[in-house]
Structures are given as structure tokens and as C-alpha cells.
Design goal:
Elements: H1 5-22, H2 28-36, H3 39-42, E1 54-55, E2 61-68, E3 71-78, E4 83-86, H4 90-101, E5 103-104, E6 116-117, E7 123-128, E8 131-136, E9 141-144, E10 155-156, E11 162-167, E12 170-175, E13 180-183, E14 192-194, H5 201-207, E15 219-220, E16 226-233, E17 239-244, E18 254-259, E19 269-276, E20 282-284, E21 290-291, E22 301-302, E23 309-314, E24 320-326, E25 333-340, E26 352-355, E27 360-365, E28 372-377, E29 383-386, E30 393-401, E31 406-412, E32 423-429, E33 436-437, E34 444-449, E35 455-462, E36 465-473, E37 479-485, H6 489-492, E38 500-505, E39 512-518, E40 529-534, H7 548-551, H8 555-559, E41 564-569, H9 578-581, H10 592-605, E42 609-619, H11 621-632, E43 637-643, H12 654-660, H13 668-671, E44 684-690, H14 699-710, E45 716-720, H15 731-746, E46 766-767
Parallel strand pairs: 40-41, 40-42, 42-43, 43-44, 44-45
Antiparallel strand pairs: 1-2, 2-3, 3-4, 5-46, 6-7, 7-8, 8-9, 10-11, 11-12, 12-13, 14-16, 15-16, 16-19, 17-18, 19-20, 19-21, 22-23, 23-24, 24-25, 26-27, 27-28, 28-29, 30-31, 31-32, 32-33, 34-35, 35-36, 36-37, 38-39, 39-41
Length: 769
């Protein structure tokens, strides 16, 4: 067909107007660029400052490891002298270690991440493949350390004189100087065992046995004279059977039976016991058996003088928490503090600190509507005073200086005109007077205090502000020296943009909510981009990244495919008021109205976001949430990838669901199940689960799939052999997730069989020739 000149001009003009919108997305080039933004590959292009100080003894000296694109470097800091130097000569140490081990080690690829200085500072000790080494850093001679051998299934006392282990369901201790073995218990049996946690699926699979070896659950007194342990009764507890469909070395599937109590079911019980290892005397703690709502076991902490220990105990449903102390001589226990609530006392928001000199206890509570610190008399349990107060949240006790009677803590929401989730370091007297902000910068601050309470290391950043690590004075927060800085220039030169913070309103129109927006590095503001939300709505935390390092991981790679990616923290999560947190109580499926409202506001303010094409994905509670969202809001969410989803709370672990969905089990458990809502599916849904998921059993996805089929709904499903909880770094699944959104949200055919590569592991150790 031949065009006349006028028509040709019109076609060219019209084509020019459409050019930005027709620019390709989801191409092989986009996939290749996305691959570069995976965390394992990004670490070769960018060093994110994040100093984790290892304080030496009780001094203010510390060492840290810098993991940069060129390799690992170790530095030694003297805070008082304000000096920094290499912790040791890495070239000389690599040469000495290579010679002795008869393997080649490179200076920036030393085969350890952590080490200990000797008391005189002249040598360091580290572990390589379960072998301990000593290296003199004056003479640079390295030798294997011939310490008393303690296996990963044994627990040595602080003095190293005693070693505890479990054999035939009973607890034994070995006296190292003589090799004498003392059998402390004799009536243990399968399902009613001593010093044994409730095993999870993972060690069973790894050891190919129903009864895996585990480190004994013993808690030694500081003076090594006693230990506390427990006898665990799982005989009446509910179980799940897991089938490993493709076990290594055999054709038949392998079955494992795992203790896994469901909401409302009978629970395993632990009976705490104290043993004097020198005499063998047994003392039962005078308490009813402790109910265990999931795998693992109870935890106990000794006082430094070995004259007592303490532990937290929650009643079923978490409506009350008790801080208990125990006399190890008699087994008598005392409730020091009892916290209760009509809904729940969240164990993740409840923490304490014993003060030995003053016999006081610091305790956190949401009782006035916000999480704050309170001071109690340890002996009487009497409340002395509330230490902090206001419409903000204490997040963590960092340190207590008993001599000056001051506490250092992290809190958020107190500073005006900034993201209320950002944490800052404060100090205040235990009488509640003299509150001082030590990290005033508009950033999220994570800190570590020196043992002498004089200095702290501050790692500060925001998603849109590269990280910086600084040594500061604990007196007034004054900066002493910059330890490390993040340089993002290489990324910025590629066109990459910082994620953009976003503030909007919840569905109620009044509550402020906060989110984050990622754009592709070839972003074009004249284009329309489909939106993908990564979701997690678990009430145990909040999830939108608040640091630079967290913000640049993973989701940027999804944006590179041609999407705008968003995250939102709606009502029902932590970090805000108790009322904000409790929005999700009996309402785990009700949080998504806030997410829809926030994404609509984002799109209204950013014309490049295409509100008609919205997808969602998530893992675990996010897997439930993503699928729930597409079921409840089918006109909004068009595509969903749900990974390891806990789709039905009735089939999920007792502790998490009884805590947040409520106990006793009510009708809302079934009402908010994705299986109940399966007939509402309209969009494209891919559900993914591993056959050996050790957290959320694959039965939850199977029951959801059964409901979808009974409702005659089209969907896609992947049951993945040998996959634990979540994608677990399975790059095939990452690619399938990318493909699913490219195909159904972008509407283009993904590049065929694109193979993703990510360098997660350090370079392998090479044998010497």
C-alpha cells in the first residue's frame, strides 16, 4: 500500500507521540540488567557501610570486618586514642596459614569472618572447617589449636571442665580432666526426652533420620557448678508428615514426622530441671509444665553470680507474660513482673534487663498505648516509676550504666517531620529525668555500645541516603571519627535512582502510612509502568526498608524488568501505637484495604504508575497476604505470585496464629482462610511451595489448590522438590516469578529460558599445587 505525502507525515507524527509508550519492556536486556541488581551480584559493584564492632574484653577497643567488592579487610579501632589500623598484616597471615594448612589463601580472601584476640593481644584464634587455629600476629606463625574437642552436639561449661550431651534420650555430662561420665537421667524415652528441643524438619532432612542429633538444651551457670535443662513431652502433640519427594541417593520418597501443634490442639510440655553436676543432685523447678506452642524449647538466663536464673513465661494466647526468677538450690520460683492484656502481650515488644547493683528490673510495656520503659524493684516486684513516656515507641534497650543510673535505648516516632519508623539512640536517667537524643540526624540509626559505656558505633542511613558508620561519644553523641562510608556514585552514573519514600493515608482517611517506591534505572517519566507490590503483613514487625542497604536489595531487580515496585506498612504491624498494632487482631486478612488505598494515592501523585495494571507477590505470611489480596480485591490486583503461603491459619503453627489471630480459635480463622475465598479468584495466580517447607507445611497450599479446583478456577502451581521455606535462593524460581509478571502484567513474552546467575558465595579455597 502506498501512502500519499500528507498521510505519511501524519503517521510519522502519531508514531513519534507513541514512541515512549511503545519502548520495549521485559526484554532479554532488561533481564540482564535485573540480574546485576540481585544482592549477590550487587556486592561486587557497591560497598554498603555497615560496621559490626567486636568489642575486646571490657575495653573500648574493637575490630570489625569490611566486606567490600575487593574482598574482606579487618580493622582495629582504639576509641579512646581515636586511632584506626589494620587488625593484622593480612598478607603475612595468609602466607603463614597457607604454608601450615597446605592450601592457598589470599590476603583478601581469608577463610574466616570472625576471630578472637588473645588476652595479651599477640595472637588471634579462628575456626576453619571445624578446626581451631592460633596465629601469632607478631611472628606470623600459625598452628592448629589442640583444645578439648567439643562436637556440635555437645555443650561445654564456661570453665570447659564439663561437657553435656544427650545419649538414648538421657542427659550425660563428662568431666574433662578425668574423662569420667556421669549419667544424670535414666528414664528418658522417645517423645519424652531430656535436654532435647522439639526438632524441626531441617535437621531431619540434613541427617536423613527421624531422630536427628541436636545440641543439648542445657544452660550452664557461670561458675559451671549447675545447669538447667528440661524434659520435653511431645507424646500427645499433633504432628505433620512431610514427604521429601526427591531425596538424594534413593528413588522412593522419604517421610518425616514432625511435631507441629496447630491452633487449639494439645501442646508439648517442658518440665524444667536443675542439676548440680558435681553431686548429681536433681531439683525440679516448682512450676507447672511449660507449654510449647511450636518447635524448639524454653530459654533460661543465669544471673552473673550463679545464685539464680530467670525466664519469661506466657500463658496460652499470650494474654499475659510473667518474668520469673528461680532459686537453683530449692527450685522455688517467684513472679517478679506480670504483664497482661485483654488482647495479647506481644513477646516481640516485651523485653527486660536486670540491674545487679541496685536489684532493679527494666521492663517494657505497651500498657499506656505506646511501648515504654518501666523500673521495678526486683525483690518486691513493686513498680518504682515509668522511665519513658509519650506518643513514641521504645524499640530496644542498648545498654545500662548502673554507676550513673542511666539507660541507653533505641526508639522511634519521637522526632518531628521525619519517618516515624526511623530509630534514634537516646539516654535517660532511670528516674525518667534527663532524656537526651544522641543521634539527631534524620536517618535510621543502629548502634553498638562499648562495654565501658563511653563510646558507640552508629550505622546511619535511609533508603534515599547512603549509609555511614561513625564512632561517637556516649556522653553527648559527638562524632569522633567516620569509620566507613557508602559511595553510590557508580550506581547513580548508570541512571539508577534512590527508592522514593512515600507518605499517605490509611483507608480510614486519617492514619498516616509510609511506603517506598522503586523505579527502573532506565526510568522514563513519560511512560506508564505496571505496579508490583511486595507484601508482608505479619503483625510481628514492620517491613518497608528503613536503611539504604535493605532498600537496594532484591526489589530493584524486579523494577529493572519494566515495573514500578512498591512496599507499604499498613495498620496491624508494629512500630507505632498499640491501637495501630492491634488492628490486625482477629483480622489477619483485613489489612489490605490500606495497601489498596496507599497504591491509589501513589498513582494519583505519580502519573507514570499505571493503576490499571497492579500485581502482588509475597512469601510466608506475605504469600498468604498476596493471594488474599487478589481474592478480596480482584478488580485491583490482576496478577499474583504466592510463595510458601500460610493460606489457612487452622493448619498453621499454634503460637503465631493464637497470638495474632486469637485464642480460643474462633470462626474468623475459617472466614479469613484463602481456601474459603477461592471462588473469588479472577486474575492470574501462581502458587509456589516446597515439599520440605520447615515452617509452613505444603498442605496449606494443597488445600488452597483443592478449593480453587472445586471452584473451577484457572491457576498455576509449582511444588518444588527439596525446597525449604521461601524461594531459598532458587534462581529458577526467581526467573519464573519474573516471567509471570512480565507475561501477565506487561503483556509480553519473556525471553525464552533465561538463566539467572548470582554470585552468592565467596571464592572457593584452592588447594596448593
Amino acid at each position: 500500500m502506498k501512502l500519499d505525502g500528507r498521510r505519511a507525515i501524519l503517521v510519522l507524527v502519531f508514531s513519534g507521540l507513541l514512541a515512549p509508550a511503545l519502548r520495549s519492556q521485559g526484554t532479554r536486556e532488561d533481564y540482564q540488567r535485573a540480574e546485576k541488581f540481585l544482592p549477590g551480584n550487587l556486592r561486587h559493584r557497591l560497598y554498603v557501610a555497615d560496621v559490626a564492632p567486636h568489642w575486646i574484653a571490657k575495653s573500648n577497643r574493637f575490630w570489625y570486618r569490611k566486606a567490600s567488592p575487593k574482598g574482606n579487610e579487618f580493622f582495629l579501632i582504639d576509641s579512646a586514642q581515636n586511632t584506626a589500623k589494620p587488625a593484622f598484616d593480612q598478607a603475612r597471615l595468609a602466607a603463614a596459614l597457607s604454608k601450615e594448612a597446605k592450601r592457598e589463601y589470599k590476603p583478601l580472601e581469608l577463610p574466616f569472618d570472625t576471630f578472637e584476640f588473645s588476652e595479651d593481644g599477640k595472637s588471634i584464634r579462628f575456626e576453619i572447617e571445624s578446626t581451631l587455629w592460633n596465629c601469632n600476629i607478631e611472628t606470623y606463625e600459625c598452628k592448629e589449636a589442640h583444645d578439648v574437642a567439643v562436637s556440635q552436639y555437645e555443650e561445654a561449661s564456661p570453665s570447659k571442665e564439663w561437657i553435656a550431651y544427650v545419649k538414648d534420650f538421657n542427659l550425660h555430662v563428662r568431666y574433662v580432666p578425668t574423662g569420667e561420665v556421669v549419667q544424670l537421667t535414666r528414664d528418658g524415652e522417645s517423645g519424652w526426652e531430656y535436654a532435647t528441643e522439639i526438632a524441626s524438619l531441617r535437621p531431619m532432612v540434613a541427617q536423613e533420620t527421624q531422630n536427628p542429633k541436636q545440641r543439648p538444651a542445657v544452660f550452664w551457670s557461670p561458675d559451671s557448678s549447675k545447669l538447667i535443662t528440661y524434659r520435653m513431652d511431645t507424646r500427645n502433640a499433633g504432628r505433620f508428615t512431610n514427604l521429601q519427594f526427591v531425596p538424594p541417593g534413593q528413588l522412593r520418597p522419604r517421610a518425616f514426622s514432625v511435631v507441629y501443634p496447630l491452633p487449639g490442639e494439645a501442646l508439648p510440655k517442658a518440665e524444667p530441671i536443675i542439676f548440680d553436676v558435681r553431686t548429681g543432685k536433681r531439683t525440679d523447678v516448682k512450676t507447672d509444665p511449660l507449654e510449647m506452642q511450636f518447635q524448639g524449647g524454653p530459654h533460661f538466663d543465669w544471673f552473673p553470680n550463679s545464685k539464680g536464673f530467670y525466664y519469661d513465661h506466657s500463658e496460652r494466647g499470650e494474654k499475659s507474660v510473667e518474668l520469673r526468677t528461680v532459686d537453683p538450690e530449692t527450685g522455688e520460683q517467684k513472679v517478679v513482673i506480670r504483664e497482661k492484656s485483654d488482647h495479647y502481650v506481644d513477646p516481640g515488644e516485651t523485653f527486660s534487663r536486670f540491674l545487679q547493683d541496685s536489684a532493679e528490673v527494666l521492663w517494657s510495656s505497651e500498657r499506656d498505648g505506646w511501648n515504654h520503659l518501666y523500673l521495678y524493684n526486683q525483690k518486691t516486684g513493686e513498680l518504682k516509676n515509668q522511665i519513658t513516656q509519650g506518643q513514641w515507641v521504645v524499640r530496644q534497650i542498648v545498654d545500662v550504666d548502673e554507676k550513673s543510673h542511666r539507660v541507653y535505648f533505641l526508639a522511634n516516632g519521637r522526632e518531628k517531620d521525619e519517618d516515624p519508623y526511623q530509630t534514634h539512640l537516646y539516654t535517660v536517667g532511670l528516674d525518667g529525668k534527663g532524656l537526651t537524643l544522641l543521634t539527631p540526624e534524620d536517618s535510621n540509626h543502629a548502634v553498638s555500645m562499648s562495654p565501658d559505656h563511653l563510646y558507640f558505633v552508629d550505622n546511619a542511613s535511609r533508603p534515599d541516603l547512603p549509609a555511614q558508620s561513625v564512632l561517637r561519644s556516649a556522653k553527648d553523641g559527638a562524632q569522633i571519627r567516620v569509620l566507613e562510608q557508602t559511595d553510590a556514585n557508580e550506581l547513580l552514573q548508570t541512571g539508577w535512582k534512590f527508592p522514593s519514600p512515600f507518605r499517605g493515608k490509611a483507608k480510614d482517611g486519617t492514619t498516616d502510612l509510609y511506603g517506598l517506591i522503586w523505579r527502573p534505572s532506565d526510568f522514563d517519566s513519560t511512560k506508564k509502568y505496571p505496579i508490583i507490590e511486595m507484601v508482608y503483613t505479619g503483625p510481628q514487625a514492620f517491613f518497608v526498608p528503613k536503611t539504604f542497604g535493605a532498600a537496594i536489595r532484591s526489589l530493584q531487580s524486579v523494577a529493572e524488568l519494566g515495573f514500578v515496585v512498591v512496599m507499604v506498612d499498613g495498620r496491624g504491624t508494629t512500630g507505632r501505637s498499640r491501637a495501630f498494632h492491634e488492628f490486625s487482631y482477629h483480622n489477619l486478612g483485613g489489612a489490605f484495604e490500606d495497601h489498596v488505598a496507599m497504591i491509589q494515592q501513589m498513582a494519583a501523585q505519580n502519573s507514570y504508575m499505571d493503576i490499571t495494571r497492579v500485581g502482588i507477590f509475597g512469601t510466608s505470611a506475605g504469600g498468604y497476604g498476596a493471594a488474599h489480596a487478589i481474592l478480596v480485591f480482584p478488580d485491583f490486583y490482576k496478577v499474583c505470585v504466592s510463595i510458601s503461603g500460610d493460606h489457612d491459619a487452622r493448619l498453621d503453627k499454634a503460637w503465631w496464629n493464637e497470638l495474632y489471630q486469637g485464642y480460643p480459635v474462633g470462626s474468623d480463622y475459617a472466614e479469613q482462610s484463602n481456601a474459603t475465598l477461592a471462588d473469588k479468584l479472577q486474575g492470574h495466580l501462581l502458587i509456589v511451595h516446597g515439599d520440605i517447607d520447615d515452617n509452613v507445611h505444603v498442605v496449606e497450599t494443597m488445600r488452597f489448590a483443592d478449593a480453587l479446583m472445586k471452584a473451577n478456577k484457572d491457576f498455576d502451581m509449582l511444588i518444588v522438590p527439596n525446597m525449604y521455606h521461601g524461594e531459598g535462593g532458587n534462581l529458577y524460581l526467581v526467573r519464573r516469578r519474573w516471567d509471570y509478571f512480565v507475561k501477565y502484567l506487561l503483556g509480553v513474552t519473556p525471553p525464552a529460558n533465561f538463566e539467572i546467575h548470582e554470585d552468592r558465595e565467596p571464592a572457593p579455597v584452592r588447594p596448593r599445587q
